[in-house]
Amino acid sequence: MVALVDDDESMREALPDLLAAMGYAANVFASAREFLESDVVELATCLIADVAMPGMTGPELYRDLRARGNRIPVIFITAHQDAAGRERMMAEGAVEYLFKPFSDTALQAALHAALGSKEWMAR
After folding, report:
1. Does the residue 90 lie in any domain?
2. Residue 34 and residue 23: Cα distance in Å, rounded?
3. 18 lies in a domain?
4. Is 67 part of a structural domain of the chain?
5. Please, which pLDDT band fits residue 116 given cuts at 50, 70 and 90?
6. Which of 49, 50, 46 lies closest to 22, judged by CA?
7. CATH number of the domain bearing residue 62
C-alpha cells in the first residue's frame, strides 16, 4: 500500500487512480499531520510526499519519520524546479524526487526502486 501526502486536491484525486492502474492500493492525506496521526504510517510500504506543503513540508515529514525509526521509502514530488533541493533529499536517502508534471513511467520506476530497496526490506 502506498501513502500519498499532498495538499493539492487534484493530485490526491488523480494519483490514486494511476497507482491503482499500476497495481497499487493508495491512501491519501491532505497534510503530513493527517498522515502522522493515522494508522497508515505503520502499514504503508511506500510514501509519496509533496515537497512544499503548509504546516509540515515533505522533507520535514521525511526527517520526522526517520527520527522515529521509520525507514519507509519516500518519493518526493514537487512543482518547484529545485535542483539543489533534489540533490539534498537524494543525499539524505530519498528514493526519488520527481518534478511535476512527471510521467507515468517515471513514477512507476520510482515505485519499483522504492519497493525493492534493501533498507525497506529490512524494516
Report:
1. yes
2. 24
3. yes
4. yes
5. confident
6. 46
7. 3.40.50.2300
Q: CA-CA distance, 56 to 54, in Å (whole number)?
A: 6
One-letter amino acid identity for 8? D
Q: Within 10 A of 9 (CB to CB), how many other CB atoms are there?
A: 10
Q: Which residue has the cell 501513502?
A: 3
Enclosing domain of residue 28: 2-115
Q: What is the pLDDT of residues 80-111, one digit of tens each?
A: 999 999 999 999 999 999 999 999 999 999 99
Helix axes 58-67, 83-91, angle to 10 degrees: 10
Number of structural domains (the chain) is 1
Overall pTM surpassing 0.90 (yes/no): yes
Q: Length of the chain, please?
A: 123
Cell numbers that stand for 64 in this block: 520526522
Residue with cell 530519498: 94
122 is a domain residue: no
Angstrom distance (rounded) from CA 54 to CA 51: 10
Consecutive H or E run containing 114: helix 104-115
Q: Residue 113 CA to chain centroid, in angstroms? A: 13
- Residue 44 in 3-state DSSP? coil
